[in-house]
Design a protein that fits this description.
The chain has about 325 residues and is of the alpha/beta class. It has two domains: about 1-65, 2-Layer Sandwich (Alpha-Beta Plaits), CATH 3.30.70.1140; about 75-330, Alpha-Beta Barrel (TIM Barrel). It has helices at about 10-25, 50-55, 105-120, 145-155, 190-195, 210-225, 250-260, 270, 280-285, 315-330; strands spanning about 1-5, 25-35, 35-45, 60-65, 85, 90, 95-100, 125, 160-165, 180, 200-205, 230-235, 265, 290-295. An eight-stranded parallel beta barrel has the order 7-8-9-10-11-12-13-14, surrounded by five helices. The protein has a four-stranded antiparallel β-sheet with strand order 2-3-1-4. Strands 5-6 form a two-stranded antiparallel sheet. A hairpin with a 2-residue loop joins strand 2 and strand 3. Helix 3 runs parallel beside helix 4 (about 145-155). The longest helix has 19 residues, at about 315-330. The relative contact order is 0.12.
């Protein structure tokens, strides 16, 4: 990090800043040229707040030379991270995660779980807590749904993933193998800190208005808490288009793969908002290099209590899984 000091700044102010930085474990090498002073900082500069430095009356400019997401940065961790969830190895090979948006009944879960496992899915998804735009929409069945999800997963031999919305819910998720942070909670920093302090893998979704840099900053919260098992998920961003629920940012896949060592998967269901759009978006994500997919499947989509329009039927999912396998095989040739 570089700090450019304003002309005619008192020497005492510069010395005071250098001492303050040293107390934080930051070294400052000084260069003088034509009355201007440039401080080159070394050490844990990713912990410094640029805005606080810029607020100092004698600081003219601050330039960050390294990213603030040090733990997520591929430069500091060249090898791909592989996140283990049961027998699945996300980041090594391809991982297919599927299941209903919301856990509704034992019959529903059994039917969907059998289908997705037969089609090659390695994880079973199901929502128990559903943050919704409208307070009147179905919000999920809570702890009871988590128990049903975990029970179905055990019976089918599939690890399970479900969305957590508050740190206070952690005890209820004891039987859940992977914790999902939804797009609405990507910047819920108290929740991210709590997930960083526990060992379960975390599936972190990108918010609709977030940049890839902001997604990595959120991942850094979890990594900094001591939990290295983070999987990033692109699920579409807000755009001017009205033809789909969101605009799936396909470019984010290769960009993130360059920037970070963390696995990157894609949720085409939430980007599409329509079941007809899910297959082409899923195929495009695979072609772009995604490490996996998160897809909503329901045994009776028209009767689904949540996200009915974008849920694939069991038959449609089976057909899509076959196409995905063909695309993956073609990419390997």
């Amino acid at each position: 990090m570089l700090i450019l000091i304003k002309n005619d700044t008192p020497e005492s102010a510069i010395r005071s800043l250098v001492i303050q930085l040293s107390r934080q474990g930051i070294g400052a090498a000084r260069a003088d040229s034509g009355g201007r002073v440039l401080l080159t900082l070394t050490g844990q500069t990713w912990t410094l707040d640029e805005q606080r430095l810029l607020a100092l009356p004698y600081v003219e400019d601050v330039k960050r030379l390294t990213s603030p997401w040090r733990l997520a940065n591929r430069r500091n961790h060249p090898e791909d991270t592989v996140v283990s969830v049961g027998n699945a190895r996300i980041g090594r090979g391809f991982c297919l995660i599927a299941g209903p948006c919301a856990v509704e009944s034992a019959i529903q879960m059994q039917a969907v779980a059998r289908t997705v496992k037969a089609a090659g899915a390695q994880l079973l998804r199901g929502g128990a807590y559903k943050p919704r735009t409208s307070p009147y929409a179905f919000q999920g069945y809570g702890a009871g749904a988590l128990e049903l999800l975990a029970e179905t997963g055990r019976e089918m031999g599939l690890p399970v993933v479900s969305e957590i919305t508050d740190a206070s819910q952690l005890p209820q998720f004891a039987q859940v193998d992977m914790l999902q942070v939804g797009a609405r909670n990507m910047q819920n920093y108290e929740l991210l800190r709590a997930l960083g302090g526990q060992p379960k893998p975390v599936l972190l979704k990108r918010a609709v208005g977030a940049t890839v840099e902001e997604l990595l900053q959120s991942a850094e919260y979890i990594l900094a808490g001591g939990n290295p098992n983070v999987v990033l998920c692109e699920r579409g961003i807000r755009s001017f288009s009205q033809t789909s629920r969101a605009a799936l940012d396909i470019s984010a896949i290769p960009v993130l793969k360059q920037m970070t060592h963390l696995p990157v998967i894609v949720d085409p269901s939430h980007a599409a908002g329509s079941s007809e759009l899910v297959p082409p978006l899923a195929l495009a994500a695979v072609a772009a290099g995604a490490d996996g997919l998160l897809i909503e499947v329901h045994d009776r989509p028209a009767a689904a209590l949540s996200d009915a329009a974008q849920s694939l039927s069991c038959t449609a999912f089976t057909e899509l899984a076959k196409k995905l396998a063909r695309v993956r095989k073609a990419l390997e040739e």
